[in-house]
Amino acid sequence: MLPVILTIAGSDNSAGAGAQADLKTISALGAYGVTAITCVVAEVPGKVSAIHPIPAEIIAEQVRLIFGAFPVAAIKTGMLHSSAIIESVTAVLDECDARKTPLVVDPVMVATSGDALLLADAVALYRENIFPRATLVTPNLDEVRVLTGKFVTSVAEMREAGRELAAEHRCAFLIKGGHLRESVSTDLLVTPEGEIVEFTAPFIPGVSTHGTGCTLSAAVTTGLGRGLGLREAVGEAKQYVHRAIAASLRWEKDGHATNALHHFAR
Q1: How does pLDDT run across 31-44, given as a tens digit for each residue?
Q2: Catalytic position from the list 135, 138, 212, 222
């Protein structure tokens, strides 16, 4: 029987990020994806034009019904957007007795386009309500800056920031280094004990898309739901994202190019 993976995330109408990208990833990696939609986002690669939050009670009811009908093997949170949504999600996960279920937190704060996706007053609630429950948190370098107050410009600084965050929040962090745009893309898995495992893949230039963070965290969640250990799940996810970028899709319209990850590339 396929393991069931729940993603609690925003809806991206261009299907390159958010819950749509999560579902593609979960399916490609051999599990069954289910969703609780937190926001409807009007976006395409490079632009976010509108965000409409779903009422908190509707988000909670989606989660509640999923847990009542499915044996959820692992959970991912993506775009939570506001304090009200974070509070609702944490309350319903407690209600569903989900603390023993692996939880991967993609702290969606800043889009690849630079648009803010998290209201400022919600950052503290991430720290207080979400991180203590997490098996893994997967910030990109913009999100590391929000969480630490420091700009990270090198792998050495990624190591320092990862140790600081993992020690502070007592959970593992995967610091994603793709925004360094070096010849090798480096991600660092940092444990609360300070152990660091490095995952690398060649950086692929010339691909301007979005959803790599959503895809990576969904892939790790799927690996955990299939019974992989954390290090193995991260390694599989890193290679999966690399393939999706390497085989990325491209459309031309009115002199403008749009790229998207190929979630089913082999």
Answers
A1: 999 999 999 999 99
A2: 212
